[in-house]
Amino acid sequence: MLSRVAETVYWLSRYIERAENIARFIDVNYNLTLGEAEPLSKQWTPLLETTADQDEFAKRYDRPTRENVLQFLSFDDQNGNSMISCVARARENARTIREVISSVVWEQLNTFHLLVQAAGHVPETLEQPQQFCERVRLTSHLLVGAMDATMSHDEAWHFSRLGRMIERADKTSRLLDVQYYNLLPDGSGVGPSLDVVRWAALLRSASALESYRRLRGKIVPRRVAEFLMLDRKFPRAMHFAVMRARDSMRMITGSESDTYCYHSEQLLGRLCSNLDYAVIDDIIQDGLHQSIDQFQCQLNTIGQEIHEDFFSVDRLNAPPAPA
Amino acid sequence: MLLLPYEMEDGFDEMFAPDGRPRASGERFVRRLETLADGSLQQRQKSAELNLQNMGITFNVYSHQAGTEKVWPFDLLPRIIDADEWSTIARGLEQRIRALNLFVDDIYNDRKIIKDKAVPEALVGSSKTLRKQCVGLRPAEGVWCHISGVDLIRDADGQLYVLEDNLRCPSGVSYVLENRELMKRTFAHVFEGMSVEPIDEYPEQLLKTLLDCAPPGVSDPVAVLLTPGVHNSAYFEHSFLAQQMGIELVHGSDLVVKDGFVHMITTRGLQRVDVIYRRIDDDFLDPASFRADSCLGVKHLMDVFRAGRVSLANAPGTGVADDKAVYAYVPDIIRYYFGEDPILPNVPTFLCDDDKQREHVLSHLDQLVVKPTNESGGYGILMGPHASPNERAKCAEAIRKNPRDWIAQPMLNLSTVPTLVGDQLKPRHVDLRPFVLCGKEVFVMPGGLTRVALQEGSMVVNSSQGGGSKDTWVLRNGNATNSATTSNAEEASSC
């Protein structure tokens, strides 16, 4: 398929997944702060850390109040990673490849765009963000469902899933990284200060609470980390997302399993193997934060290499290196 | 529903004869309409408009910034053409396109028609759309104009005339196909049993035409559609046609010339392209051959084309036959190549480059329509009878300054078709753009795009200037059967 089309569909999915994750972050943070006696502004700073947009925020806002952070993450069209920007770019991407996506997907994207635009004009959205966040999540699900159910699972579809899974792995890792240390002020992971309500909120923001309960039972920080990081069956877990990304990559390249044709494929396979054999106790002992940081770096590199291997024009002078 | 009073203007109405009775071609349709319950037509019109929005059938308007996508108004009442008249039109179009292809090929090669003085050398030589880069070229199958959209109009005398040939990048065919879909969705009971020629074959025929004209020796040619991009006014059509034909929709930046061939940049490397249905103008096609500032085209594309390793549809250089001064010679061109009279007449045209004709034009500016020879889309036209003395004086000055750039034609009174305006049917002026494909064979799509001027009395049908469109029905022969009378009762009750 055309490189431009592959790139467009890949980013379309990344933008949608990004918008959905912002909605999730806002929702969990809002719920966590609800129980507080006073509106602590410092509790909205971690949200900016989660999306890694602190510098961008500091340029245009004076204090990380709830209103400012929510405005910045939801409806600030100068922030390229805000929900409104992500959805607008996803729609614009779709417009340039309408011959590739199904009309149902196109209509869903239109609806999504209109939903976010309309919400941006209503002040109540920021005062009570839960309902809006839920609608964003649901619309994103509808869109992914429409892609699954109405598009051929061909190369374009796999590029779309590759983008979505890479974005999701990154965002779940950020959520875990920031909240884990927030919820463990003394770093011990045990003790009387454990706030089950807030740990439950973290799981819920990844739609993971019910699955976690069924599989792991009681809330234990180590197990929560294990679940969000290493679970193979839960669709928002980092490991699951990377496995699916690897599957799609293989469908795109046609490589035999455990082999590779492209550099990005090699790196993705390696990252997935790391998770295949990882144990949570080792990770925590070596430092959860360091481990997640490394994971994010590797994902970034994979994203760049995907661009080099499939989208860029420069690669065309050299054929792909054989395995 | 009650169709009367339908107040006709003095021109020709396509549906009703001057005595107010339906013409033979429209009779069955009018009878059907009469069986509809009051308000039903309006309801269906609304439903059609809603459908258009949901289907996202839009065109872009350049003057607007945000929200540039507009829905093109659609009117539910079709234009109906009977089988006999259509067969004459189709023969006329085929004759014309074949002659024009021979003409373009001749102009860039042997120039026999000039040597034989059937067309003046100065006229062709001074055409701004003559492309020196195309001299000596022989496209595959000898076809230069693969796709044309010929504009036809009917004057008050009932005669159909060719107004323009549109041999470069004619657009509108996607609306023809979508209008028919819309008609079937919203007007099924009326449409049923009307014995209308289907048009669905077009994408298939277009693909066949493109592949037929691939460079010789290519066994399994790859065709693509080249678009200027999402901001072009016809982007919807580009996307639609690519999807219907199952070929890639490419931008200039998706294509590269390497090792003497054109390739598209794919996720698996380069893939050779053999035929390009290009929807960008000659000027922007190749910055190395035409405009150097073009970022829409493909560098060195013309070299590959000249080497016969890629086919372009339409070939560059066809605009020479679109020049409105050259247009005036098309009847002579047909006589020259075929030794027969044109089946479809031209609109009488005065060439301002000719001293005598120019004097006539200048002294009759208040009665004539003056057009620049090299514009399309209705730009730069002076409607003499409606113009102010000042506008006419300016126009006269422009003509005297550059006579070659102007032609003039009598003011024609375009025919009308009943159109739903509020609760009533009103006559509105229309033209017709049939689409003609020319590859190994000629294919004329039955009907074409009927554009309608929605403003009362207006003759301007352009989408950018308040025009809308209608479905166009070509009736099959032996249409007067009673195959559909059974659905009348059902129809009346369901409305």
State the secondary-structure class of chain A: mainly alpha
Instruction: Count every beta strand of chain A, where a strand is a DSSP E run of 2 or more residues.
Output: 0
Give the uncertain stretches of chain B in residue-range form: 479-495
* Spans where pLDDT lies below 50 across 5 or more residues of chain A: 187-192
Helix content bin of chain A: over 70%
Give me the side-by-side strand order of the main sheet of chain B: 3-23-22-19-18
Helix content of chain B: 25-40%
So how many helices of chain B? 16
* Average pLDDT of chain A: 88
Domain module count of chain A? 2
The largest pleated sheet of chain A is described as: none
Average of the residue pLDDT scores of chain B: 89
Determine Rg of chain A (CA atoms, Å).
20 Å
Task: Classify the oligomer.
Answer: heterodimer
What is the general shape of chain B? globular
Number of helices of chain A: 16
